[in-house]
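Now for my pick.
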Amino acid sequence: MIASETKPDNFTLACILRACSEQLNLEALKLVHGQVIVSDLGLDSITASALVSAYSKFGLVDDAKMVFDRLKNHDLVLHNTMITGYGSCGYWEKALNLFIMMRRIGNQPDGYTMVGLLSGLTCSSLLEIGQGIHGYCLRSGFDSNIHISSVLVSMYSRCGCMNSTYKVFSGLLHPDLVTWSALISGFSQSGEYHNALTSFKKMNSYGKKPDSVLVSILLAVTSQLAILAPGVELHGYAIRHCLHLEVMVSSALIDMYSKCGFLDLALKVFDEMPKRNIVSYNSVIASLGFYGLASEAFEVFHEVLNELLGMAGELDEAYELVNSLGEHVDSGIWGALLSCCDAHNDSKMAEIVSKRLLEGEQERSNYKIMVSNMFAGNGRWDDVKKLRDELDDVGHPQAASLKTVPLLFLELYAELFDENSASDEDDFFSNHTSETFTLPPPSVASPSCNPNKRLNPQLLDIELLVPHLIHLLVPPIKLLLLLMI
């Protein structure tokens, strides 16, 4: 469309901006924002409202406010969008201030304004403010608005005022699933578990079917009551409606079964989960800890470190997590993190982790070998020699094998796979004619070389030597085995 003679107008761009926010595509949103500016529609109220709404959904309130401030005239729709953006991101005070300013310039609020204000009130300390907004709704005739009543139920529920929650809820003729969920969630968070189950049974009698969010809430209720029967019924419902595949529901099932005394069923749910997140791992770790299975809990923790953080590339977050555990962190955890650094070729983080792993622990020889291999991969031969000498000093069984592997061969490894190298094989060997070395006889058969691995075009003759040299390598030396990858 952009390439044609037909140019997008403000309505077209507003629809595209809405699609970007719904797809959570921030990069596309910024590109469309640029198109809005190029099309000279940056001061249009329709595109501005769409931009404010989109940036708010990403939590980028400052960017949304910047778009809002560029416009000289703010209509009710734009005010409501900005207030809703503040409310959805938890900036209730800014939403309230903008509401006051809006009234001062003559814009009268409507139901959407009230919904935006109420959505930002999320804790009991804001109950009085919520009651004040409720009072304004009553004086302004908004209390008959079903949507506002539903939001009031949610607000009172979040603030823990269940008497007001139930009073507003009772005034609704046909509460929707969201309103029922808010009521049941409020009872659950207030510790009124029997009222939560009673409300669910009443909701069921009206033909309302719970979604994954409500099923998770109800499973949490049954786990607090340690009543297995309703939990099993909810599990059956979740299976029939394919809700048990969602991480939220599976995590709640793990917690429910473990607290009801069926750890084996909790672990079975965990094993069958197609996808896991930090919540599901926390559930199973807490369950194992509850039963005193500390070693199994630490095994799962290792899996968290590798699968969720380390192997996902979130190395900074993984380091902060491990560091937060204090001084009694098992060396295996630091070792797992170091392996993740190696997998992602993050030498900076590997340096930090290796220092934590090796400090004051002479017996951690296996990790010194790992660090030595990483140093060698980065061409840090002096550090390789230093660690190798330390292993020899403490009498590590692999130290002798390591010592027989010369730096010449390690440098040869780097030369073979350095595509930017300017020297040829004759120059390389001529510079090392005085070096002599001996290697132990082969202990295992050599794996086959990877045919997809490309050697330096200038060193193709040396490729013939590689299979013979590989036969001389010692299995524990990870660096040299990389020749065959």
Summary: Confidence is low (pLDDT under 50) at residues 396-485. DSSP finds 28 helices and no strands in the chain.
